[in-house]
Amino acid sequence: MNPPVLGWDQAALAAVAAAVALVLLASALSPAPQPPAAGSCRYAVDVNSAPADELRLLPGIGPVLARRIVRHRSTHGAFESLGDLRRVPGLSPACVEGLRGCARALPRGPGKDPRP
After folding, report:
1. Which of 7, 34, 65, 113 to pair with 58, CA 20 to 30 A apart?
2. How far is Cα of residue 23 from the mean position of the Cα atoms in its chain?
3. DSSP state, residue 87
């Protein structure tokens, strides 16, 4: 019979090892978390008026991209559509598509109603 390790006998060590193996196997087999589906957001952020802190609530938009969106909007004017966000450096077409349902580009300018 082998001496106990840290006060544990072989049966206890085997049970702990089996439990750890099960946890690792379960985590490896679990599907990766999915981003929110288009239209599943509680409300849509207006990319033409939202400050950087609010833009960060959008999926895939961190602090750097949020500041770039605000800077581009300040320099070049309002976005006509969400597709116009592709002109912002660092925003890929896939990222822009992921914003559908969570963001919108409300019209700006004389005679345009900014309300949804």
Report:
1. 113
2. 26
3. G
Average pLDDT of the chain?
81
* Residue in 78, 102, 106 with CA at minimum distance from that of residue 116: 106
**pTM across the whole model:** 0.60
How many other CB atoms are there within 10 angstroms of residue 47's CB atom?
A: 26
How much helix, strand and coil, in percent to the nearest 5, is found in the chain? 45, 5, 50
* Residues ≥6 apart with Cβ < 8 Å to 77: 108
| pLDDT at 113 exceeding the cut of 70 | no
Token pair belonging to 7: 């006060």
Closest CA to 69 of 57, 87, 92, 44: 87
Per DSSP, what are the bridge partners of residue 8? 5
CATH tag for 45-104 (out of 3.30.300.130, 3.40.190.10, 1.20.1420.30, 1.10.150.320): 1.10.150.320
What was the pLDDT predicted at 101? 87
- Could you tell me how many helices (H) and strands (E) the chain has, helices first? 4, 2
Q: How many CB atoms lie within 10 A of CB 19?
A: 10
